[in-house]
Design goal:
Length: about 250
C-alpha cells in the first residue's frame, strides 16, 4: 500500500527547517488551521492600496486588513503565545489545536488548501469524503509539526516589500525568518481576498510549496485506491503517530 512519504527528500528538508526555527510554527499553524467544511468565499472588492498603512485599520467597519500586515500580526500573535504558554511549547496537541482554531483558523482557507492538495480528484469526492479529507489532513499536519514548538524562540519575521495591485484578488506575501547567527529562511504565503478579508491557502518554505509537496503523494494514492483509500491512509498515518506518542509516554 502506498504511504504518505514524510521521509521524502522534500519532507526531510522541510522537517530540518521545522525543527530549527519559528518557520515550523508559522508553516504548521497556517496549514492546520481549519476543521470547517465549505467552499472558498466569494471575492470582495477592497478600496485603497493593498499593503498600505491604511489597510491596518482592521477594526474599522468595512475595512479589510492589508495582507502583509495581517501576516505580520498573525506571526507576532503566534510567537507571543509560544513564548508564554509552556503547554504549547511542549507540543500539547489539545492546547495547540485550541490555539490554532481560535487564532489562526479565521485567516486560513483550509477548504481550498485541502482541495488543492487533493488536486483534480477533489471534485470526485462526495461532500462527506471532502469533510473527512479535511479533518484527516489537518490532523496529519498537526501531529507532524507540533513537536517543533519548543524550538521556536529568539526569532523574528521580516516582511519583504509587497508587490501588488489594488485590484488583485490573489497575491504572494514574501517574508524571511531571522535567527541569531544563521542565514535568513525564506517563508512565503499565498493569499486570496474574500468577503471576510485575506485568507492564506498555501505556504512556501525554502522554495517548497506545501500544497504541491502533498499533491503528488495524494494523487498516487487516489490512483491506486480511490478517495476512500486516501482517507484510510491518512487515518492510519494519524493512528501511527498517536501510537508512537503513547509509547513515548
Amino acid at each position: 500500500m502506498f504511504r504518505i512519504q514524510t521521509s521524502s527528500w522534500h519532507a526531510r528538508r522541510l522537517t530540518v527547517v521545522v525543527r530549527s526555527s519559528l518557520l515550523a510554527v508559522l508553516t504548521w499553524c497556517v496549514c492546520l488551521a481549519g476543521s470547517f467544511v465549505g467552499s472558498a468565499p466569494a471575492l470582495a472588492q477592497v478600496g485603497g492600496t493593498a499593503g498600505s498603512a491604511a489597510g491596518s485599520a482592521a477594526g474599522v467597519a468595512g475595512a479589510i486588513e492589508a495582507p502583509d500586515l495581517m501576516v505580520q500580526r498573525l506571526s507576532n500573535d503566534v510567537l507571543e503565545r509560544i513564548r508564554t504558554d509552556r503547554d504549547i511549547q511542549n507540543g500539547d496537541l489539545r492546547r495547540v489545536a485550541e490555539f490554532v482554531d481560535a487564532t489562526v483558523m479565521p485567516k486560513v482557507d483550509f477548504a481550498r488548501m485541502t482541495a488543492l492538495a487533493v488536486g483534480r480528484n477533489w471534485r470526485q469526492a462526495t461532500p462527506e469524503q471532502q469533510k473527512q479529507l479535511m479533518a484527516e489532513f489537518r490532523a496529519l499536519l498537526l501531529r507532524t509539526y507540533s513537536g517543533a514548538l519548543s524550538s521556536a524562540r529568539d526569532v523574528t519575521l521580516r516582511l519583504r516589500p509587497l508587490r501588488a495591485d489594488p485590484a488583485d484578488t490573489e497575491i504572494v506575501v514574501r517574508s524571511e525568518i531571522l535567527r541569531p547567527r544563521s542565514e535568513p529562511i525564506q517563508l512565503d504565503y499565498r493569499l486570496q481576498r474574500s468577503a471576510e478579508g485575506w485568507k492564506i491557502y498555501d505556504v512556501n518554505v525554502l522554495g517548497i510549496w506545501l500544497v504541491e509537496s502533498y499533491r503528488n503523494q495524494f494523487a498516487q494514492e487516489v490512483s491506486a485506491n480511490g478517495i476512500d483509500g486516501l482517507i484510510r491512509t491518512l487515518v492510519e498515518k494519524n493512528r501511527a503517530y498517536d501510537q508512537a506518542a503513547a509509547r513515548r509516554g
